[in-house]
Amino acid sequence: MLLHVPDVLSADELAHLQRALAEAAWADGRETVGVQGAQVKRNEQLPDASPLKAELGRIVLGALDRHPLFFAAALPLRILPPRFNRYQGGGEYGFHVDGAVMITPLDGKRSHLRSDVSCTLFLTAPDDYDGGELVISDTYGEHEVKLPAGDLVLYPSSSLHRVNPVTRGSRLASFFWVQSMVRDDGARRTLLEMDSAIETLRTTGADSAAVLQLTGVYHNLLRRWSEI
Ligand code: NI
Questions:
Q1: How confident is the model at residue 132, as a pLDDT?
Q2: Which residues have C-beta under 5 Å from ligand 1, the single-atom ion?
Q3: Domains by residue range for the chain, with CATH
Q4: If you measure from the C-alpha of residue 161 to the centroid of ligand 1, how many angstroms do you get, rounded to a whole number?
């Protein structure tokens, strides 16, 4: 499932992140990839040890926490601390796959996170740069994604994807991976569709006993499919 999640950041949060990243000390993005990625990756990232990365990451996590569509779509169990990158001057990231298992400090100890859902949170307005589309390849073909600043795209971590060269301006983004309570992308999609239909029924005055029954079905499917 490829999903656009709008308005993740408030205008104040977005302005704060943009200001902070404009003055940040960036490092070569190849610091955090394996051999496969290093050959095709030409961008910059905030270093993993950077206090700014940690501070801005907390803002992103706080914003995700209050976003019902993000929660309903990703059903997050654990989220890798968000990273930040910048593409400019022809910078790009050729087709690659994300690692299936990430090792990360979570709650103060080293732990493993299975990447089920990949997320990119756009931080630069699309008119301010040329190129820089996130291109996601699946069985329906290739999808080009370039969203308003403050909006997020989520997609299965199993997808091949790339970022087109940025030929004007610079493109700032935050990116991170989610280990979902529900590993299977199709099951997550079914749950999201059911959640959305139940919400519509609830707000349009449908029979309340039937809505309650459907809500029970949603939770029973989640109970059956979640691994926590
Ligand atoms: Ni990637």
A1: 98
A2: 98
A3: 3-180 (2.60.120.620), 185-225 (4.10.860.20)
A4: 6
